[in-house]
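Ticket #4471: complex job returned nothing on first submit. Input attached below:
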Amino acid sequence: MSRLATVFEATRAENRAALVGYLPAGYPTVDGSAEVLTAMVESGCDIVEVGLPFSDPVMDGPTIQLAAEQALRGGFRVKDVFRVVERVASTGGHAVVMTYWNPVYRYGVDAFARDLAAAGGLGIITPDLIVDEADEWVAASETHGLDRIFLVAPASTEERIVTTVARSSGFLYAASVMGVTGARDAISNAAPDLVRRVRAHTDMPIGVGLGVRSGAQAAEIAAYADAVIVGSAFVSQAGEGIDGVRTLAGELAEGVRSRVAAGQAS
Amino acid sequence: MTEHNGSDDRTGHEHDSHDPDERGYFGEFGGRFIPEALIPALEELSAEYDKARLDPDFVNELLRLLSDYAGRPSLLTEAPRFARHAGGAQIWLKREDLNHTGSHKINNVLGQALLTKRMGKKRVIAETGAGQHGVATATACALLDLDCVIYMGEVDTERQALNVARMRLLGAEVVPVKTGSRTLKDAINEALRDWVTNVETTHYLLGTAAASHPFPLMVRNFHRIIGIEARRQMLAKAGRLPDAVAACVGGGSNAIGIFHGFIDDKDVRLVGYEPAGHGIESGEHGATLSEGSPGLLHGSRSYLLQDEDGQITEAYSISAGLDYPGVGPEHSYLKDSGRAEYYSVTDDEAMEAFQLLSRTEGIIPAIESSHALAGAIRLGKELGPDGVILVSLSGRGDKDMDTAAKFFGLVGEDA
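Support reply: We reran it on our side without changes. The output follows.
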């Protein structure tokens, strides 16, 4: 049984989308990231993605690149991610880790899954691991009861969507645009189309991310997706202080409860 | 010594037992560790190359460009005065430095540029370290009327300023990359970010036999012409196959190209030389195969330089073209299977060989290729006067004159 499923049962019962917020562990410091993530949970994030800073983040735009660089310069170590997850989980938050695959491969896939589960983490989002290469992770996630959140993109073919859905659990991460992370003014209309194509193959919750930064955008996405994923906007706010993070989470939490029909958001 | 089947008319694009499996694995190395968003483009590229490699029109058009535009076949030159410093062994140089644009890179670039046209794409992006691949790509794009954007680490744009000017003269846009270590690996990161954003209109013309399938296979096959020609030339001129083939290894494209000419000749040693930079013990080097461990970078599983957390560590070499913490997956496979051997050469040894070839043969080699020459000196001393060594002279040294002038103090009143 997916441990994230209960989160989505609750949000679906409330007829709203879930809010998923991202922050790299170790940014601005290890303790600081745990505090910001906890504030995000308190202010309305149903799930938080704890990022694992990596030296070569090819899917990330400048905001997250710089945050990851700062975390690494500050001495972030992979095992610190478990401490952060533990802090978030101990206050009742639902935490997943988002990570490029090499640090996990290096740590040992089974060992990483074991330590993440022990810390109270619920799953891993894998931006550069495709299902075809994921045998070891599938086995480890089964052993330790973690969810596997793979990505699909607007370019994904029907065949790729079907293959990816088959090995996913918890929710699916639908990239709203072809591109890297970073706040954008408008969410492309590729997102609703992608969600519709994925929905044809599964009832699994679908989260939409890449470029979301405002309550209005959140409301627009909430109209057709099960989760609204916000990354760079939180990272930018975290650089300014915790009050702005709470304000942003509050605005987005309101957005996911509004469910504006697509195209009506200003 | 057995003859290759049809070694005289192979093009490098034939299917053989050295192709990776259908998932792009050479043994346990290779594959696709890359965002899902790029998988459709990689599948399209695989399908197009699979068709093209069997299409006489494509292969003949490429061969025509290689001969009429790039100047192939490249010469095989004996280096007797240089060889005196290498135990008296016979040393033969495969002269990729004489190709148009001055290195082996043009072989792959012309092939991928033709593929780009076949796929109906109009825009090409590429990474470059020293600038050799960037210049070659800008050249092919000028020739074939393709838009061209080159990503180059800011550190490299400074140490290779003339190549930046060259690319711009050829009509390419050069984007200095200011993130991370601001060298080759960061240029690849930035090119991948561009590709994931513009994949519908854009081909990523990768410069080495690394990254996700089908690049390691395809780039290798575009360079197999080096080894096919060299084997034929060795038999004609030296009357025998070499005892050893020496090549420098950064990503490993010239090495894999020349190695493949001899890969079925079990008595021919295949020897790759990586940059030891300031010395392995200094920690400042790019000796990925000698000192690294298996991991995932830029789309495939291969040896790489990483710390105990799996963070990629910065490579160093005096040669910008070897300054890379990864290596093509087939080299990882050849290392583990024992078919090829890999050693490292320091900056100082490479620069000594750079000067020696200039003074004994009147050939100024690229600093990259000088690592192979330094290796050949070691091999010659090991094999003695009966030894026969083939060296991949992958590029010419014009681009390195600024570095060499500083290293040897060649400019100014006291020089």
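Chain B has two domains: 26-69+104-215, 76-102+223-408. Closing as resolved unless it happens again.
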